[in-house]
């Protein structure tokens, strides 16, 4: 028998028991004629005490770090207790032991504070996974998984697997493709999500489906994305938006309760997409803090109206503002005493290529009611006061203003808001704020192709009273400048995102379930009938056999785990992740394949 107990199990109550443990050697400490060895497994660490004669054996055959051993002996009360570990009151007086396998010296130390750099730890991920910090993350991931499954099972959802080798229908991200040996010259694609399958399952009558499933997207990996990632993917029949929101608020609340012991009783807050963009510059606002954006001048289309509010800066000669499409600001509370160095540093921050703005205007609202700004030349005290009051700034605040093209500027002010929020300590890891963002536009304008693309995906239904607008209008856009005036830019989707602390953790929609509306949607996206049939004929066909009304959602499982674990990196919560170039540095994949394989696949 290799072991009677785990290395995290024995306590003072087990004194005198004869036990056998198995695990990895963490440390070896020789004191005169005796030796202490810490042995580790998944459950913890226990101290072994090797007596004089066993120590003599170690002298000829030393134990090294990460050797796998089994040791038997008596549980003994320690004289020198260690309050930091649960087994710290006992040790094992070893009477026999055996080396089960040796280890060469590991490339980094297997400890909480390791000396291994990122790349090295990824290369030896199987060793990194022995570390507590990483193990805790995987344990949390498993807890979230169990909690989700328990809830969905109780709610009558069925876990049904869907294929990984499917048809390539790129819409959104790029597909990963797999050559077919048996069908030379043809390719499968890996699913970006099981979207169409779960919809077909609804047509088949499995009215509550879920799957914790891998999805594959061949995207450029911006920070903290993975080419393969996991979703909690769900779909329901005979539901309206409200049913879905209700069911999945329930799921998230259950996960919070099971995993974090946090009970959320109130309803999750809701915000329209327009309000999110207008007030936070972002469709996934972090509402742990307020600091809303003031739209000093903007060409943002909201509630059917083009906003072009020039009031706050009317009658001034400041060209930068007057020429800008959009001027937006935030008021950083209590920051009016920022030094020149600090405001310069913020200016550099927003000029970084990732943000790419040309400059930052600031107005200090001094505690005594006076103002000092970087544009004093153009704005007298009265005008500064008017802007400050328009921005709801209080004495002591620092108003930060950005001006430029609408989309870029709004994005930049949103980033600046988050950065200031972080610096001021408003974004606490242990505070969780959920939010539904809803009423998204159904379409987005793609300037490169001068056409509409589906903001969520092509299967999302318009709001019931917007369906007619879609049917009645020709999707063709005259020119790039005209898209904001096109009736399609007004159509709202029956779609919703769940946002947690400024991260989109889930998104879904009520689906189109009638063939003709789905065809109209494909046409609106610039697909002719032939293309629509080639790509999605199976779905259009299925819709003719009694498709029920349905809708669903998918949660980003990796991201959800990372946030619950208080981390910004999803990689930490994936057992074998890829790096930022999509490489598995442990396997050294992707890699070339040999000529024989290429030939078999009919590839050149
Ligand atoms: N399949 C969608 C996605 O991956 C989610 C959904 O609409 O259910 O984003």
Question: Could you please describe the fold and organization of this structure?
Answer:
The protein has 604 residues and is an alpha+beta fold. The protein has 4 domains: 12-101, Beta Barrel (OB fold (Dihydrolipoamide Acetyltransferase, E2P)); 132-263 and 555-600, BirA Bifunctional Protein, domain 2 (2-Layer Sandwich), CATH 3.30.930; 289-427, GAD-like domain (Gyrase A, domain 2), CATH 3.30.1360; 441-492 and 514-547, no CATH class. The chain contains 16 helices and 24 strands. The protein has helices at 52-60, 118-123, 125-128, 132-154, 195-203, 241-260, 273-280, 319-323, 340-351, 381-390, 406-423, 467-472, 515-524, 529-542, 557-564, 595-600; strands at 18-31, 34-41, 44-50, 68-77, 90-101, 158-159, 177-179, 187-189, 208-216, 228-237, 269-272, 294-297, 301-302, 305-306, 326-332, 361-365, 371-373, 398-404, 434-438, 443-446, 451-454, 495-500, 503-510, 550-556. The strands form 6 sheets. An 8-stranded mixed β-sheet has the order 6-9-10-24-23-22-19-11, sandwiched between helices. The chain has a 5-stranded mixed barrel with strand order 1-2-3-5-4. It has a 5-stranded antiparallel β-sheet with strand order 12-15-18-16-17. A hairpin with a 2-residue loop joins strand 2 and strand 3 (44-50). Helix 13 (515-524) packs antiparallel against helix 14. The longest helix is centred in the N-terminal third of the chain and has 23 residues, at 132-154. The protein is globular and about 90 Å long. The mean pLDDT is 94. Aspartic acid (ASP) binds at residues 193, 195, 507-509, 552-554.
């Amino acid at each position: 028998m290799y072991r009677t107990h785990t290395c995290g199990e024995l306590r003072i109550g087990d004194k005198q028991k004869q036990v056998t443990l198995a695990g990895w050697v963490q440390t070896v400490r020789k004191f005169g004629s005796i030796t202490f060895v810490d042995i580790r497994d998944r459950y913890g660490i226990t101290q072994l005490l090797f007596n004089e004669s066993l120590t003599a054996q170690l002298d000829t055959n030393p134990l090294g770090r990460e050797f796998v051993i089994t040791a038997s002996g008596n549980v003994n009360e320690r004289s020198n207790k260690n309050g930091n570990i649960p087994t710290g009151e006992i040790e094992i007086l070893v009477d026999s032991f055996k080396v089960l396998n040796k280890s060469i010296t590991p490339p980094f130390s297997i400890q909480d504070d390791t000396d291994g750099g990122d790349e090295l730890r990824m290369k030896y991920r199987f060793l990194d996974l022995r570390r507590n910090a990483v193990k805790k993350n995987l344990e949390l991931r498993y807890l979230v998984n169990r909690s989700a499954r328990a809830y969905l099972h109780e709610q009558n959802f069925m876990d049904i697997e869907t294929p990984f080798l499917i048809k390539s229908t790129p819409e959104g991200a790029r597909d990963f493709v797999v050559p077919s040996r048996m069908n030379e010259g043809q390719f499968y694609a890996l699913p970006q999500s099981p979207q169409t399958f779960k919809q077909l399952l609804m047509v088949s009558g499995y009215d509550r489906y879920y799957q914790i499933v891998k999805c594959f997207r061949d995207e450029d990996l911006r920070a903290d994305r993975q080419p393969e990632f996991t979703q909690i993917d769900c779909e329901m029949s005979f539901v309206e938006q409200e049913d879905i929101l209700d069911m999945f608020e329930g799921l998230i609340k259950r996960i919070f309760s099971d995993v974090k012991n946090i009970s959320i009783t109130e309803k999750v807050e809701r915000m329209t997409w327009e309000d999110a963009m207008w007030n936070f510059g972002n469709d996934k606002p972090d509402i742990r803090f307020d600091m809303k954006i003031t739209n000093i001048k903007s060409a943002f289309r909201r509630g059917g109206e083009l906003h072009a509010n020039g009031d706050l800066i009317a009658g001034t000669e400041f060209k930068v503002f007057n020429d800008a499409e959009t001027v937006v600001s935030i008021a950083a509370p209590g920051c009016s005493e920022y030094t020149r160095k600090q405001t310069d540093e913020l200016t550099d921050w927003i000029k970084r290529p990732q943000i790419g703005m040309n400059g930052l205007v600031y107005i200090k609202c001094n505690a005594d009611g006076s103002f000092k700004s970087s544009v004093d030349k153009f704005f007298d005290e009265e005008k500064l006061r008017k802007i400050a009051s328009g921005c709801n700034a209080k004495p002591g605040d620092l108003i930060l203003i950005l001006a430029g093209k609408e989309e870029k500027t709004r994005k930049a002010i949103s980033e600046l808001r988050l950065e200031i929020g972080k610096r001021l300590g408003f974004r606490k890891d242990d505070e969780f704020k959920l939010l539904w963002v809803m009423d998204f536009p159904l379409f987005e304008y793609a300037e490169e192709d001068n056409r509409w693309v589906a903001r969520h995906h092509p299967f999302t239904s318009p709001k019931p009273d917007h369906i007619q607008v879609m049917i009645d209008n020709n999707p063709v856009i005259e020119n790039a400048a005209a898209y904001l005036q096109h009736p399609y830019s007004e159509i709202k989707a029956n779609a919703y995102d769940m946002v947690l602390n400024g991260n989109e953790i889930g998104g879904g929609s009520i689906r189109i379930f009638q063939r003709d509306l789905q065809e109209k949607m494909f046409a609106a996206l610039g697909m002719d009938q032939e293309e629509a049939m080639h790509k999605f004929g199976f779905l259009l066909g299925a819709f003719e056999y009694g498709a029920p009304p349905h809708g669903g959602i998918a949660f980003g499982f990796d991201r959800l785990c990372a946030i619950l674990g208080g981390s910004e990196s999803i990689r930490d919560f994936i057992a074998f992740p890829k790096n930022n170039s999509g490489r598995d540095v442990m396997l050294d994949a992707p890699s070339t394949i040999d000529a024989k394989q290429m030939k078999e696949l009919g590839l050149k």
